[in-house]
Amino acid sequence: MKTKINLKTISFLMAVITIGALTMSSCKKDNIIIIPGMGTKSITKIAAADPQFSILVQALTKTGLATTLDEPGTYTVFAPTNTAFNALFTKLGVSGIDQLSADALRPILLYHVLGTKAVSSGLKSGYVPTLSPAIGGRFVSLKIDVMNGVKLNSTANVTKADIMASNGVIHVIDQVLLPPTVADLAVENSNFTSLVSALSNAGLVSALSDPKGTFTVFAPTNAAFAQLTSAPADLKSVLLYHVLGTTVYANKVTTGYAKTLSTYMTHPMDIYIDAASGVKINNSATVVLADVVGTNGVIHVIDKVLLPPTVVGIALNNSNFSILVSAVVKAGLVNTLNGTGPFTVFAPTNDAFQKLFAALKVTGINDLTAAQLTPILLYHVVAGNNVSSGLKTGNIPSLQGSNISVNVGTGVVLNGNTNVIIADVQGSNGVVHAIDQVLLPPGK
Asked: Burial, 34: exposed, middle or buried (Cβ in 10 Å; 0-12, 13-18, 19+)?
């Protein structure tokens, strides 16, 4: 999110520049042109001249940032007072700046700095990137709330705004801000109180606070949780189904399957991401806000709670299996395949079904009866959660009764001519392997 400078201020400055000597009294000091709305001193010099910032100045000097904020630039500094720093020292159990290393202080201080000049009238509620570094060259997000004064991360208040400097602006705050983990980001946003409560009940807050983590969290809002008709039976599994073990920013999201931290029989369950138009997950949840960056990962806000799918759910979540879904419904096999399992499903894509229709000289599923479809569909289902690494060359019995021939080489080939094109899509009662042709039982 970009902060916006007050339009009246811009108009006034343009007028001053245009009129020049008629309306502007200017002088030069240290090669800085003085105009209304711009201070004559740098951010560092202003802080050094104010006793309430003496600890901040010590910290900036210790980390080498005092020099940075003394140079030309366009910065916004949310400046904690000595009282704010002393409260932090008490919280950390230290006596002062001397007990904190420069390496520990630097990301904290940078979390108080924006790379643009943002006067208070230009601030808007939402997230902005600070200069504190995060995974993959990104920067940790700061939450700004301007509904009632200016509040940062739901805790720190701006007590004095718009102290103008030659290289930016200072806003005084009453707390030191600590760069947040993905867990902290959720805690600091009132739209995630249901999520935070669920994470706490499932014992997952500490896991998502791991400073060595590299998480992507698809975070449902309170409104998303309110849509649930009942509480999930396995809350921990459901919550972990919203988390990836790697940090994936919006510009790296692509259409396809992604492994979550939720498992079935030790295997990570998959979500299906459709990035064709915006980002949609499992054909239901939409990413409504992307790239809220923490120190150990990123949050993408979603509008629905994701529930780990059965093998039927996996097919429902991907439009490439829409014909398969229609066939399963027509054959009356939904309840069977939503059962306890485990099942292994070799799932023909829509293109695979179209090849079958052409071979049978029919237009679609409507031209086939349930009695015709049932044995064909059951021939694609094998008992057990057979992931690709466990498949071996040989024959495996299907639920239809006939064997499927499996050949494992550089890929997996079934019955000599059907290829597994996507393997190991894990669900909550089995695994799905996408195939490029419909398998026909012997004699069909």
From this structure: middle
